[in-house]
Design brief:
By secondary structure, the protein is of the alpha/beta class. It contains 19 helices and 30 strands. The chain is 30% helix and 22% strand. The structure holds adenosine-5'-monophosphate-propyl ester.
């Protein structure tokens, strides 16, 4: 079942919190609090909802479970995350505190105080209104990693609209599908984005996506690279030109929202080709992310916090944009790729900005580890006090490198397991929890997770099983946009009788109750921590004129966690040579995006299928890995 490597090597290796950490931690009694939360989870969340965020109107009920699995949290409450992330800080002493420090790939630097960010958000909110965006409308945002991306997100939510951010690494078809599904009349993009010294033509990609998805009426374009682009008169508008008009006034009222109103949609890969838009709501989501960020990362007023993900993924939504702003932190955001132009770019930035918390993914850690210890050794990394990881199981070797070479054995490694669907951390230590390299340790306070057998019985220690969540939590996605049945089927059908949420992951629990995530059990492949559905890549392959049928699998890779191997049946008369391999790779890059490009493409005459016609990817995988094929009794005769 294991999709990854070396996750079991170190069960007996334990790192206890140092005396220094214990002396300074703000929540030394976290484990007691967790125990209380286990006994009364609703009281725990109720207390956090009162402590960490402000409500325009108090809620009446913490959890409404009358229509399972469509749970509602904090019903009756009126709230807006932008009030908690910006408005209230601007009225406090934090007004002039730095909210965001941004560094461009070329070294340019921009800073935003809470007041400045608030004004920019107001201005853009007014621009969106002038483009006809109203409460409940969706706005698709497709940009590089620039400050205007969080500004556009915050402005959308400020006026009660719903954002759908599409990661800038996706291409035409992926973008078109997402715009179409969300039915966004207004989209926000850039002329281009900088990546490793080159530009990515975001506006060209947007133009092609709009041609495939004609719901779009207005395009707002941020000038970032200055490259020549096509502007369609009456449809496309420059951000800076709109911002100079009287309509872009510096004040816009924040819209009070019902706790259960939609706040954003975020698409993620599932088992079919159709993108699945997870919908998060205004109340529970913010309570969940503020609580988890505060406790798990033990954040402080004077932190310089850096979550190095992309705002276009859930990690960025929850822990670059909204969580840190709610808690009034100063965040750092970097436009470019790690290791560009030099392998010590990140370490230089940690030193330069005095970063105290760094949160990234195993794939980035492994990528930087490859360059050797000399690069980080050149820099003073002593400002760091806590390191985080997310996205896939971290192999103990990378964990130890992160701990020793980057954290200099002083910083706890907070390995956070969670998903787009969960909104925020679910299984994670805090600095007081003893650590085991490769384990996300224990469910967070108020979260009930378990590893179970198919029949629902809890697994024995160290037995592989299904990772389930047994109680609802405030940050949970409420539905799949426009398709509640799919939400039910995907997450709640596997353990319908028990009413548990199935994560799609396999895991095991050791004798200390520590969770070890093994990997995905469904047709989702994690490539460099990015989540891709086999169907999405397969449909891109078969959309090429030479390909009749395709199947893709994930194969373990030392650097990227997994890479994609594709098997294609070609149309009659087509010759499969290296030229076609290159063409197909370029085609997938164009349709889905660079992260989806298969590392290998093999041409075959047939694919192993069940009698009902389902491709048996397991057999393909066994073949590539040289493993025994196991039970083939359902194989087509
Ligand atoms: O397989 C798990 C893996 O990432 C999946 C969720 O992917 P996504 O929705 O893209 O969200 C990623 C960022 C939250 C999970 O089902 N995963 C995430 N974090 C970890 C992990 N696997 C092991 N350890 C983690 N810390």
């Amino acid at each position: 079942m294991s999709d990854t490597f070396d996750t079991t090597a170190s069960k007996s290796e334990i790192y206890h919190p140092s005396a220094e950490v214990l002396a300074s931690v703000q929540l030394p009694n976290y484990l007691e609090l967790r125990e209380q939360a286990r006994r009364d989870p609703l009281a725990f969340w109720d207390a956090r909802a009162k402590e960490l965020v402000e409500w325009y109107t108090p809620y009446e009920t913490v959890l409404d479970d009358g229509n399972r699995p469509f749970f509602k949290w904090f019903t009756g409450g009126k709230i807006n995350i932008v009030h908690n992330a910006l408005d209230r800080h601007v009225k406090s002493w934090r007004k002039n505190k730095l909210a965001m420090i941004w560094e461009a790939e070329d070294g340019e630097q921009r800073t935003f105080s809470y007041f400045k960010l608030w004004k920019e958000v107001n201005r853009f909110a007014n621009i969106l209104k002038s483009m006809g965006v109203k409460k409940g409308d969706t706005v698709t945002i497709y940009m590089g990693r620039v400050p205007e991306l969080p500004i556009a997100m915050l402005a959308t939510v400020k006026i009660g609209a719903i954002h759908s951010v599409v990661y800038g690494g996706f291409s035409e078809q992926a973008l078109a599908d997402r715009i179409e599904d969300a039915k966004s009349k207004v989209v926000v993009t850039c002329d281009g984005a900088w990546l490793r010294g080159k530009t990515v033509n975001l506006k060209d990609i947007m133009d092609e996506a709009i041609a495939r998805s004609p719901v779009v009426q207005r395009v707002i374009v941020l000038k970032r690279t200055g490259q020549p682009i096509n502007m369609v008169s009456g449809r496309d508008f420059w951000w800076h030109e709109l911002a100079a008009l009287p309509i872009a006034g510096p004040y816009c009222e924040t819209e009070p929202m019902d706790a259960e109103d939609p706040m954003f949609i975020l698409y993620t890969s599932g088992t079919t080709g159709k993108p699945k838009g997870l919908m998060h709501t205004c109340g529970g989501y913010q309570v969940h992310i503020a609580t988890t960020l505060k406790y798990a990362f033990d954040v402080r007023e004077d932190d310089r916090y850096w979550c190095a993900a992309d705002p276009g993924w859930i990690t960025g939504h929850s822990y670059i944009v909204y969580g840190p702003l709610i808690l009034g932190l100063t965040s750092f955001m970097y436009e470019g790729a790690p290791g560009y132009p030099y392998p010590d770019r990140w370490w230089q930035q940690v030193e330069k900005y005095g970063i105290t918390i760094l949160y990234t993914a195993p794939t980035a850690i492994r990528g930087l580890m490859r360059f050797g210890d000399a690069w980080p050794a050149r820099h003073d990394l002593s400002s760091l006090r806590l390191l985080g990881t997310v996205g896939e199981p971290i192999n103990p070797e990378a964990w130890r490198w992160y701990y020793t070479v980057i954290g200099r054995e002083r910083c706890p490694i907070i390995d956070t397991w969670w998903q787009t669907e969960t909104g925020g951390f679910m299984i994670t230590p805090t600095p007081v929890v003893p650590l085991k390299p490769g384990s996300a340790t224990l469910p967070f306070a108020g979260i009930e997770a378990d590893v179970v057998r198919e029949n629902g019985e809890s697994c024995a220690p160290n037995e592989d099983g299904y990772l389930v969540i047994k109680r609802p939590w405030p940050g949970m996605a409420r539905t799949v946009w426009g398709d509640p049945e799919r939400y039910k089927q995907t997450y709640w059908a596997e353990f319908e009788r028990q009413g548990w949420y199935f994560t799609g992951d396999s895991a095991r629990r050791d004798e200390d109750g520590y969770f070890w995530i093994i990997g995905r059990m469904d047709d989702v492949i994690k490539v460099s921590g990015y989540r891709l559905g086999t169907a999405e890549v397969e449909s891109a392959l078969v959309s090429h004129r030479s390909v009749a049928e395709a199947a893709v699998i994930g194969v373990p890779d030392e650097l990227r966690g997994n890479v994609i191997h594709a098997f294609c049946i070609l149309n009659a008369g087509v010759h499969g040579d290296q030229g076609l391999v290159d063409e197909l790779k370029a085609h997938v890059r164009h349709e889905v995006g660079p992260i989806a490009v298969p590392a290998a493409i093999e041409f075959v005459d047939s694919l192993p299928k069940t009698r009902s016609g389902k491709i048996m990817r397991r057999l393909l995988k066994a073949k590539v890995l040289g493993q025994p094929v196991g039970d083939t009794s359902t194989l087509e005769g």
